[in-house]
Write a structure and sequence with these properties.
Shape: globular
Number of helices: 3
Largest sheet: 5 strands, mixed
Number of domains: 2
Mean pLDDT: 90
Helix content: 10-25%
CATH superfamily of the largest domain: TolB, C-terminal domain
Radius of gyration: 22 Å
CATH architecture of the largest domain: 6 Propeller
Number of strands: 29
């Protein structure tokens, strides 16, 4: 458990790490892959090929080559809505052949593109992932969801009360969030397959910031029923709660490491929130120096090597990424509420009330949701 005296000792260490931001480095990362699109066969071949090419180009991870010895070869047969796709290395070695037979051609295209990404980059693609977020378009803050490209927007809650802090389980089948529908901030869970909903935490005080562990078997959250806000870990049913911290510094916004062994969170020991990491079973926290004196809303990258967060600089909020190996911090963009994609190459965040997806290696951004009120707190399934 984390005690007050331990927290006070850590403050000087944390502030000593402040300094100028350094360039972002991701050694060994392939920035763009060369792709040769061989003619797709079948009655839907031309249509499917166009959609696959558009999806690959939109990701920012590929260059399409007419021909070339160093390009991956993508081919397929598409008919009746189905796609049988093949990807081969430049050497001609087949990396995979797979059939996609969903009723939707769009879903089959996205599945094929996600597997192309996995075969080339070694991490899953994001075409079929989901983003949950908060919007005040209905007149109060409700939870919405969309596909990774901003399509298929739908309203999830209709509480007519403030809803906040959505967290998607990695498979996007369960959603945890805070709602004031009872008049108090309680944590709820929705099964997105059935829309079945239940309240899982309704302790006195504030209950917020619920975050699914990578395996979906635990929730980290902030609860204040014992006094000041503290970190707890429970199972998804709200049972078996374990208190991790015991301090007056208002711990908030817990996020999991990809192996589920650690948490990163913000706390306020100096009057300015800072980041700390600690074992997800409890113990003494470690300060994470970012070079900024006001740092909140951390999110841990899928490879475990980086933590993104929101910093405040002269009243302006910006996104930073800290390399945990080099301790260097990169100032990425204006915005807040960052969340990593499953591929570790994209971040979603909010800027001027809009939902932005940022390719951190290419430095490109695209607005995926706008004109839906003021948006906040995106959570990206993995």
């Amino acid at each position: 458990m984390f005690y007050r005296s331990q927290f006070q000792i850590l403050v000087a260490v944390l502030l000593a790490g402040q300094g100028l931001a350094a360039p972002l480095e991701m050694p060994g990362e392939l920035r763009k892959a060369r792709i040769e699109m061989l003619p797709f066969e079948g009655s839907l071949g031309a249509t499917a090929q166009q959609k696959v090419q558009e999806e690959l180009l939109a990701s920012g991870d590929y260059m399409i080559r007419e021909s070339g010895g160093d390009a991956y070869k993508v081919s397929a047969v598409a008919s009746g809505g189905k796609i049988r796709g093949t990807v081969a290395a430049a050497s001609g070695k087949v990396l995979f052949t797979e059939t996609y037979d969903h009723l939707s051609l769009r879903i089959n295209v996205l599945q094929f593109c996600d597997e192309i990404h996995g075969a080339i980059f070694g991490r899953p693609g994001i075409g079929l992932t989901q983003i949950a977020f908060v919007s005040d378009a209905p007149g109060n803050k409700e939870i919405f969801m969309c596909d990774a490209d901003g399509s298929n927007v739908r309203q999830i809650t209709r509480d007519r009360a403030t809803c906040a802090s959505p967290s998607l389980r990695s498979d996007a089948l369960l959603l945890a969030f805070t709602s004031y529908v009872s008049g108090y901030p309680d944590i709820y869970m929705i099964d997105l397959r059935t829309n079945a909903r239940r309240r899982i935490v309704n302790a006195p005080g504030t209950n917020s910031g619920a975050a699914f562990s990578p395996d979906g078997q635990r929730l980290a959250m902030t609860m204040s029923f014992a006094g000041s806000p503290e970190l707890y870990v429970t199972n998804p049913g709200g049972f078996g709660g374990h208190r991790l911290t015991n301090s007056p510094w208002g711990e908030a916004s817990p996020a999991w490491s990809p192996d589920g062994k650690q948490l990163v969170f913000s706390a306020n020991p100096t009057g300015r929130p800072q980041l700390f990491t600690m074992a997800s079973t409890g113990g003494v926290p470690t300060p994470l120096a970012t070079g900024y004196s006001h740092t909140t809303e951390p999110t841990w990258s899928p490879d475990g090597q980086h933590i993104a967060a929101t910093v405040k600089i002269k009243g302006r909020k910006s996104i930073v990424i800290t390399n945990l190996t080099t301790s260097q911090t990169h100032l990425l963009a204006d915005g807040e509420d960052p969340c990593w994609a499953a591929d570790g190459r994209h971040l979603v965040y909010v800027h001027e009330g809009k939902l932005i997806v940022h390719h951190i290696l290419q430095g490109t951004t695209r607005t995926v949701i706008s004109n839906l009120g003021h948006l906040a707190q995106p959570s990206w399934s993995r």
